[in-house]
Specification:
Blueprint lengths: L1 E5 L3 H12 L6 E5 L2 H10 L4 E5 L7 H7 L6 E5 L2 H7 L5 E6 L4 H15 L2 E5 L4 E7 L2 E6 L3 E7 L2 E6 L3 E5 L2 H5 L6 E5 L2 E4 L5 E2 L3 E4 L2 E4 L5 H12 L1
Parallel strand pairs: 1-2, 1-3, 3-4, 4-5
Antiparallel strand pairs: 6-7, 7-8, 9-10, 9-13, 10-11, 12-13, 14-15, 15-16
């Protein structure tokens, strides 16, 4: 993985680069020291991971998270725990490291990033589409047609199937790119399979026995998708 470190503390950048040299999963580690440099770096190079400090001299980590491509996983770092908790509101954030950094915890975060990139693998077949979902050390083959809806829970997603639930480490936004067009997002935390929708009240989608609230920003999009699907 190509890593970009964004921190205005040169000593922290050097420490992270030292940690990265110990990680077989990381092929290179580039450091920049402010938000503008980070934006330029992202535009000119392809990175697989961003390690981002919350406090920067020109932009906050939150500002940059809004600007960075959502498909690039991010590890947030800060000396203040409150910022770590807030960072999990962003789907691309895989982990948070509290300063002072230590290598053992850093290595665990890198493993999480690696796992998030490899937890869901689409399999294209002539008659049927499936996903290979990693649940811990176990790989589970999930038929896409059996997925009723998917719910985001922190850094994990839960697949609600016809007969069971499966949880895996994955971003809901990234997952949405692997699912077919009958899967529609109805709010920040839910994607539903139109094949299982029994009723839409305007405020809720009913997939028995569950009533899923529809976010205001998603209502028109969902209504349009549902009408097209029915036709």
């Amino acid at each position: 993985m190509k890593c970009l470190v964004v921190d205005d503390d040169a000593a922290i950048c050097d420490l992270i680069q030292h940690f990265c040299k110990k990680e077989a999963l990381i092929s290179s580690c580039t450091k920049v020291m402010d938000g503008k440099q980070a934006i330029h770096a992202i535009k000119t190079e392809d990175y697989d991971l961003i390690i981002l400090d919350y406090h920067l001299p020109d932009l906050t980590g939150a500002n940059l998270l809004d600007l960075f491509p959502t498909q690039i996983p991010v590890i947030m770092i800060s000396s203040e725990l409150d910022f770590g908790i807030a960072s999990y509101n962003y789907e691309q954030v895989v982990d948070f490291l509290l300063k002072p950094l230590n290598y053992k915890r850093f290595s665990i975060a890198i493993e999480k990033v690696h796992a998030s990139k490899n937890t869901i693998i689409p399999i294209q077949e002539s008659k049927q589409e499936r996903l290979v979902v990693k649940d811990g050390n176990e790989s589970i083959i999930v038929k896409i047609e059996d997925i009723k809806y998917v719910k985001s829970e922190g850094n994990y997603v839960v697949f609600y199937l016809k007969d069971k639930k499966v949880m895996t480490l994955q971003s809901l936004k990234l997952l949405a790119t692997t699912l077919p067009s009958n899967f529609i997002r109805v709010q920040k935390s839910f994607i539903v399979n139109l094949n299982f929708v029994e009723r839409f009240t305007g405020d809720e989608v009913i997939i028995a026995p569950t009533a899923i609230p529809v976010g205001a920003a998603y209502k028109n999009q969902f209504q349009t998708a549902l009408e097209k699907w029915i036709k």
